[in-house]
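Replying to the earlier thread about multi-chain prediction with a worked example.

Input:
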Amino acid sequence: MTGTALPVMNAATGCVEAPVLRERGQREVFCGLTGIVWLHRKMQDAFFLVVGSRTCAHLIQSAAGVMIFAEPRFATAILGDRDLAGMADCNEELDRVVRELLARRPDITTLFLVGSCPSEVIKLDLGRAAERLGGEYAGRVRILNYSGSGIETTFTQGEDACLKALVPVLPEAPATQESVLVCGTLADVVEDQFGRIFAELGIPVQFFPPRRATQLPAIGAGTRLLLAQPFLNETARALQSRGATLLSAPYPLGVEGTTAWLRAAAEAFGIAPERFASAIAAPAQRARTAVARYRPTLEGKRLFFFPDSQLEIPLARFLARELGVELLEVGTPYLDRALVAAELPLVPATQLAEGQDVEKQLDRCLAARPDLTICGLGLANPLEAEGLRTKWSIELVFSPIHGFDQAGDLAELFARPLQRIARLKV
Amino acid sequence: MQLTLWTYEGPPHVGAMRVATSMEGVHYVLHAPQGDTYADLLFTMIERRSARPPVTYTTFQARDLGGDTANLVVTAVQEAYARFKPRALLVGESCTAELIQDQAGALAMGMQLPIPVVPLELPSYSKKENWGASETFYHLTRTLIGATARPRPERAGRRPRVNLLGATALGFRCRDDVREVRELLRTIGVDVHVVAPLDATPEALATLTDADANVVLYGEIAYTTAAWLQRVHQMPMIRTVPIGVGATRDFLTEVGTALGVDVRAALESPAARLPWYSRSVDSTYLTGKRVFVFGDATHAIAAARIARDELGFEVVGLGTYSREMAREVREAAQQYGLEALICDDYLAVEEAITKAAPELVLGTQMERHIAKRLHIPCAVISGPFHVQDVPARYSPQMGWEGANVIFDAWVHPLMMGLEEHLITMFSEDFEFGEAGSHLGARGGSPSTPTTAGTTVVLEAPASVATVTLAADPALPAWTPEGEKELKKIPFFVRKKARANTERFAAERGISRIDVTTLYEAKAHYGK
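Result:
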């Protein structure tokens, strides 16, 4: 496989014109609060305080697997009857909880007040609360707010809302200062790898979100925005309104995606093609070798994606073009055409589905009997029990999968369920 | 508003899901926003269930709020009925739906479905998961049986029979407990009529009154229902929970008395290995080990009794997050000279454990976190639990085999007798370090509470957490020699030795603790 040319697709074909099945009904997806599970680890001096119900607290700890033995940097201010009946002033209560929390965690420099379904429905104004408390803690703790409620956000949209809340406090960069801003949570190791490649290309780079909430990237007219995740619509818009220019590119998943993503930056900075080629030659070659190992397992296999993280379209592109899978259905919670403009032409024509009616989608999945189904944790074991092989989609947002040196790992995540079943004799 | 890091129980609608998921032929329509489907994974992942919970979520969004969210309920009920053909339907609301007041239950009642429909009103902002399960079980049972008292079943010419109530999906070891109790009852000639909610059907639930008595296996879930059956249908209720050897004997005796069965021959069983294991000399090292017990009320009360009476431990803390059964736990705690900790605040439980300085924690998944942070051995005795606590092998808590399982599970995390001696004798051996046992590698410095007002930093593998101890200027200070001698005491008892010595010194007005004070305190306290 090494060095094999990838199929060239006409920009007008692929999935650009593919009909989209739009469904609404029961959605088997997380709400935006779930993003806290990785965001609170990424920004080590930030704390996430959900203002919500016991359900919210239960959701986050269940999604986190209750396996984080370290004290979490998130908590829930659980609304009680007294708060709802107006017997307690919600704002005063919230102030009390925040003071209690910040006294306990003096290491926190940024606090996010995170809205939930109940706080939205009772119209608790967390924006004003953040302003009020921000004044009280001025100079010590920055207090911001966003909503991760299920009535407004799906799973990864929570990260979008969180990052958008940070945009107004990003420092201003001089217009002459040109740099790339890589936007979207990446594993630290991936960030370091990209940092080395950008250094070799001679392109100044900043990452957003940063590892410490106090080390925010500066932004201005010279900022070239490169999205690392396909779900940051609102953040991208906010950054553009602060002068950044969005570079349209496929996402850095797989060899092809990573190459095209880096090239978008290189071209924006006028890097000579030879210099670009030499900078990526070695890691790209390593990645091709690593991916090729899994092609025999995945080639020709029929895949079905349930909607989950909005990563579905770039992942489908990678799996179809670099591993030769056949796509039966690619479901995504939202199809944001602007964000996947560079991806859609590359995805072989297939059934795209937006939104979800989980019962109908399960009917289609069970009728198609795919070789591998990518779905959430609530569906995986039931589908396995029906004799289907599954890949938990949540692992795709909790694992380092971006960039050249993770391309093989990403392929392996999809190959593993198939290789596992081949091993089992029980 | 309550600041919560981890929660012991989910919201009450998750309790209703546990009842629906336990049963066959029951479906639950839940008016809820996107995201609430997370609860499915509790069942499919933690319990590895091979089927989705029988729950249909209406999945309303912000844009629906101004419009017709009520219509979503009607559509969801229609579609769920057509697709799943349930024989009884539960209809309720999650926390957000409760706020928008669509009256989902009443809407469903108005649809004239040809099956029993049970509207559930489970207040999310004041009640929790186990209460929700209990209410759901009660209302479902009431609906299916009806409130009219029926004649008690004829006893002549047949074996006595009982219902086993309270086992649910996501209950701690429920499936194995039911098997064990069924076997236990078989040995005294008592049949099991219906097990519910676990594996029950609506039809079976409707015949509960055909049994001679109800056995409440888990009071958190079944007490309300059993009390109603006793009040309205004159069914005796058996409340002793057979967890532990003594409690198993008491249970058999109570069943015998209620049903007029001679159980004397069944009170000793060769299957009960705990008594001999506990008497065998190897167990000497268990004597007086300080244990802290926290969990749901059923398991916590049982665990404390086993700890003291069957393993020879000293119970230094007893508590529960089950507020509905606080009275029972308070009464139990009195027997150990303790004040019960009735609390669902993880941080307060952590503080109580830190203060009690136990050598073993018996708790839930949450206490496993706490114990790990404090470097104390821990065994899980109650929900909430992790996928690791749903073993593949037969592992009941109840009956003779349950007591055997408990002996193994609690002793396993402890250091064995001779290992403990060697570490005590040669504590400066560099390979013992602070990690010189199978208790596992230590992430950092031990959580030694030092004197007055010090902040102790616990280094957990992935982050740094701080525990600030109350400043107490009354506590005496340690001399360097005293401190050095203290370090020669094995880490697993050092904390207790430090606290005892400080108390000893403070009571005697000694302001500086030296080597002599340390040994005087040791002589005073005896260990």
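Chain B has four domains: 12-127, 161-266, 274-414, 440-525.

Feel free to reuse this layout for your own posts.
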